[in-house]
Amino acid sequence: MDEGPRFSPLYRQIKERLLAGLEAGEWKPGESIPSEVDLATRFKVSQGTVRKAIDELAGEFLLVRRQGKGTFVATHTDEDHSQYRFLRLRPQEGEQEYPASRLLDCHRGRASAEVARMLELRLGEGIVVLKRVLYFREQPVVLDEICLPGSIFKGLTAARINGYSGSLYSLFETEFGTRMIRADERIRAVPADGEAADSLRVKERTPLLCVERVAYTYGDRPVEFRRGLYRTDEHFYANKLA
Amino acid sequence: MDEGPRFSPLYRQIKERLLAGLEAGEWKPGESIPSEVDLATRFKVSQGTVRKAIDELAGEFLLVRRQGKGTFVATHTDEDHSQYRFLRLRPQEGEQEYPASRLLDCHRGRASAEVARMLELRLGEGIVVLKRVLYFREQPVVLDEICLPGSIFKGLTAARINGYSGSLYSLFETEFGTRMIRADERIRAVPADGEAADSLRVKERTPLLCVERVAYTYGDRPVEFRRGLYRTDEHFYANKLA
DNA sequence: GAGTGGTCTAGACCACACT
DNA sequence: GTGTGGTCTAGACCACTCC
Questions:
Q1: Which residues face A207 on adjacent strands?
Q2: At residue A5, does pLDDT exceed 70?
Q3: pLDDT, tens digit (0-9, with 9 covering 90-100), for A165-220
Q4: Contacts of residue A117 in chain B, CB cutoff 8 Å?
């Protein structure tokens, strides 16, 4: 009956130990981890075995290797545009752009059945709800509603968000120690309701993309549920299939 | 000025030689390639170097490794559901399902400006156009229009498609020697026009997902452009972000 | 048991970044 | 030059599949 793995290679055990170190905050986002030789010595294995463990973590974008410099903990805070790793919107014409954000609302609430299920909370547990609009070239394109577990994001306020110059995920990892490492999205087409029409400056019932995202941190723990409504007259959602 | 790679490691050269063999049809989809030891001997490198080349090809889903059995050329024809590798539609409720297809039309035409650009053809070059509906549980969910270069798909007819019991990509690789190895999709929300409303049994102007796909074969050559209109009242488009 | 892919080691050398 | 990750080798042994 049981279908658990009967065999765990050494490099995977090393991977788990590195993962534990990352989760425990032994090395912080943007910092470098010890060299492969150091880790091999510490774990009493060969460098090749450490390499294979790091290879997998780099493949999952938890670590970033830089030849000649070292291996670094991935971050949503980098100067380059890795802060927009999860943004799939592209302009119909012209170069890739990055959005400006305007916060509409930030309040406490209680988990509905839907949110509780998505975030693995109990019904009615405390959450934080954000609303915001994303602008490309001064044009509103995305209306986001974002639900977060209150227990993790205790001190989160509108002022805190508005006073921060970076992406939300950058703020989450810097100020709340919670790193988003992967996410699942579900996409549907819906008609704009009054609020969306208003915020995005389209007519009611205009077709919009409805993008629901659950983002996960270490250990596959869900820590964000968001629903975005996207205008797609001048942008599209890009996806690569392999 | 030039930014080409200054250095190509051995395993990447081996990878290119394997790729050339795949493209030339030296090993056909579903068949096994020679063992790592054989290839190492043939290419006069160590087994580890061959391994690394195969690792990359397996990571791109061009090869599939099976411990104890060998390494096989990937296919869209497998009994398992790898034939639906590119299908991202999931039911809102219940288990994953796989669609039935009904061909509406198959005719020759000439490449419009848009299609010519997408398929890297000259304006007016011969193409084949397919229209079909995909059904989940007897319900129409997707209306597809598929454009293919006429030069590659010479003998493609409605009869040929209807007489084939497998996915389109399976037919393409089996009968036309053209394997789809990756694809880019662009997703927007659009209102149903008369034809879509009719085919999908929804009201006109119902919001639908518009999914445009360009599929590529070896050497990044585009060989299919399709536009799908998806009902998303009982299904959604699933995507994993990492 | 023979053959295949998968793991692990130890050591040599290359490419790159910093100082 | 020194230290980092990246490549390559050769060989031993493990896990899985099939005969």
A1: A191
A2: no
A3: 889 999 999 999 999 999 999 999 999 999 999 999 999 999 999 999 999 999 99
A4: none
Q: Are B34 and B72 in contact (CB under 8 A)?
A: no
Please list, residue by residue across B188-226, b when 16 or more beta carbons sit within 10 angstroms of its beta carbon and e when fewer do. bbbbbeeebbebbebeeebbbbbbbbbbbbeeeebbbbb
Distances in Å between the alpha carbon of B199 and those of A52, A197, A225, B41? Answer: 51, 28, 34, 57
**Does the pTM of the predicted model rise above 0.85?**
yes
Among A26, A16, A24, which residue's Cα sits nearest to residue A50? A16
Measured CA to CA, the distance from residue B225 to residue B147 in angstroms comes to: 5
Fold designation for B81-237: Chorismate lyase (3.40.1410)
Asked if the A10-73 domain carries CATH number 1.10.10.10, the reply is yes
Q: Enter the DSSP assignment of B171.
A: H
B242/A61 touch (CB, cutoff 8 Å), yes or no: yes
C17 C1': nearest CA residue: A68
| Through-space separation of residue A57 CA and nucleotide C13 C1' in angstroms | 26
Contacts of A190 in chain B (CB under 8 A): 189, 207, 232
| Residue-level pLDDT at B83 | 86
Q: Are strands B139-149 and A221-230 parallel, antiparallel or unpaired?
A: unpaired
Nucleotide nearest to B11 (CA to C1'): D7
Q: Are A189 and B86 within 8 A, CB to CB? A: no
Q: What residues does each domain of chain A span? A: 10-73, 87-237
Q: Which of B39, B28, B35 is nearest to B74 (CA)?
A: B28
Site of tokens 């050494």: A10
Judge whether B10-73 and B81-237 match in fold: no
**CATH 3.40.1410.10 corresponds to the domain A87-237:** yes
Task: Determine whether B151 is exposed, middle or buried from the number of CB atoms within 10 Å of its CB (0-12, 13-18, 19+).
Answer: exposed
Count of H-run helices and E-run strands, chain B: 7, 11
